Amino acid sequence: MSLKSTTIKNFIKDVGTKKQLFVFVGSDNKNITANSNQASLDVWKESDFSIRVGQNSIYPVVPNIKWIQKRPYIPWSGTTENLGNYYVYNDQNQYVYLCVSDNALNRKDLRGENVSNIRPFHTSGIQKYSDGYSWKPLYRMTPSIERYITSKWIPVLSFDIFDSENQKNQLLQTREFCDNTTTTIGQCGIYAKLALSTDDDDGTIEYQSGDLFTIADSISCSDCYYLMKSNDKFVSRFYENSETVPSTITIIDEYTEVGQLINSNQISTASPFYYLYQINSNDNLEEGSVVSAFIDLSNFNESDLTVSTENPELTITSNTGTGASIRLITGLLNSYYVIRGIEVVNPGSGYKDITVSLNSSFLTGSITSSSLNAAITVNLDVIDGLAFDPVSVLNAQHVMIDARIDKTTLENSGIILPSSVNMFGLVENPQGICGATDITTGSNLNKKLDYVFRTTVKAEIQNLYSDSLLPVADEEYDISYAFEGETFTNTNTKISGSLDVSSGPTYISYTEFKNLDYTKAQDLVGSSLVGPTNGSSKSGSSIISIIDTPVFVQYTGKVLSTTKLDTSIPISDVDSVIVRINIVKGL
User: Helix, strand, or coil here: 156?
Assistant: First the structure.
């Protein structure tokens, strides 16, 4: 299992809980370099709004390797690192297939000489096609994840990233946990989610999955719910004071949970996990099965490879698995059986180690048993099965964020839309202002969903003269203001969007300002605007009130990436638009 794949899965599960990801969206006419220090600052200075990314808008992705006729593909290996075209995406039936073999004789020395001519179309198990290729389906695309398919990338899934938590808000989730009671005081049993060990005064204590770890007394049900919500190691269960807290509970894994949800019609065919489960449950492979066997005959002559019987079976030795059978493929040459290849007859199961050998009594040529055995490679199914965790099997090293916000949602948020955007930044865990306490912005929201956040200061502007209708969107102004008895000038303040709300004898506009210090926003009331700073000069406009400010603590969190587009995306000048921010990030 790739360490990066494990990082990917943990990253996905943490989004919306431990990791609050925000895509800052803006426009910037400066010539900045993506992912530079200046770009990390401009994400805050030049952003027009931001989107908190929920788990519904992020997915692991791998390179999009489409099946193309007359192209060679590389078989998957359980013993070496897999690189290149060892899997394919069939865009006709939406399945992703693992290449198990590229030739009918399973000859390692013939690798690359045979092209694939038959598109794989089966939906479970390993199947050999007449062109010599063998394929195994891993998972299927469904409409819910098609948004992550691009010419370069395809989404990839795993039972390890399945999360059954619905899109209800936290209050409703708490009530479901508490059976609609959130005020009862009782006991909170805390159980080990996975096996673990800990030390105390009595020495090391071992806990199996589902064992009671400790009990929190005199606690409300809602607090019991939040105590272990999204915890990696423990789960909580609430019990009345009159109840006996059980010493063990059943903890089911994601595979079993998906099966139960499918059987109760709570997961439909619209979910990719429906097909992931069907592929696993209908597969002829189990954990530790023999997936494939290859033989390299490049160092032998035909006269070396004669044996006394047709297709002799290899002896399999293992400390773990059972039931597998592998045999050599032979052909006739001058009344002699000659080794041509190898094949798996029965995959067996449970193998963590395996050794194969041919009884020397079968050999009639000059080859030795040890040299033949050394030419054979056996590939075992991974722990949990190949189709259980395609994220690891396909060595996923990137995630795709595909956040989508429609124009109506933006308008309903009270944000005046900019005319266009051309810059994006991904910020992790920016701090937010909640009373006098800094918390991570978005930590109280449903982890599945996207939310719009303000990144500009919205002000009410009074324009005294019709010929000085300030401000003008996308232009820069100087704002003079008083602070603690001194006068300051905020230079190059940019207008993100502006909306006229009244006309003569005074003219009132609602205006979005960026490149401002959020903490100084209220000090701007009564200040005047001078500009634009492109050479012209206008006067007669002043800020009469601050309508709204961002909830962020400016320049906090970690900027993970920045992007600057060559062309701008129009927003405010179209009747209907969906702002789609698509970012692929390696981990």
Answer: coil
Q: Which residue has the tokens 């050479």?
A: 535
**Percent helix, strand and coil across the chain, each to the nearest 5:** 15, 40, 45
Q: Which residue has the higher pLDDT, 202 or 310?
A: 310
Instruction: Report CA torsion sign: 110, 119, 85, 11.
Output: negative
| pLDDT confidence of residue 194 | 85
Condensed to tens digits (0 to 9), the pLDDT of residues 372-386 reads: 999 999 999 977 778
End-to-end C-alpha distance for the chain, whole angstroms: 15
Residue 441 CB contacts under 8 Å (≥ 6 apart), including other chains: 20, 22, 52, 430, 431, 432, 453, 551, 552
Q: Among candidates 183, 205, 179, which has minimal Cα distance to 192?
A: 205
Tokens found for residue 236:
């909580």
Report the alpha-carbon distance of residue 502 to residue 473 in Å, rounded: 17
User: Tokens 């005047």 appear where?
Assistant: 528
Residue 249 sits at φ, ψ, to 5 deg, of -130, 165
How much is the pLDDT for 535? Answer: 44
For the segment 547-554, the average pLDDT, to the nearest whole number, is: 91
| Bridge partners, 98 (sequence order) | 87, 136
Quick one: tokens of 478?
């100087």
User: DSSP code of 539?
Assistant: -
Separation of CA 207 from chain center = 31
pLDDT for res 232:
81
Q: Cβ distance 192 to 184 under 8 Å?
A: no
Average pLDDT score over residue span 147-176: 80
For 350-408, list the strands marked E by DSSP: 355-357, 376-380, 398-406
Residue 251 main-chain phi, psi, to 5 deg: -105, 115
**Does residue 401 contact residue 15 with C-beta atoms inside 8 Å?**
no
pLDDT in tens, 138-149: 999 999 999 999
pLDDT of residue 565: 84
Q: Map residue 521 onto helix, strand or coil.
A: helix
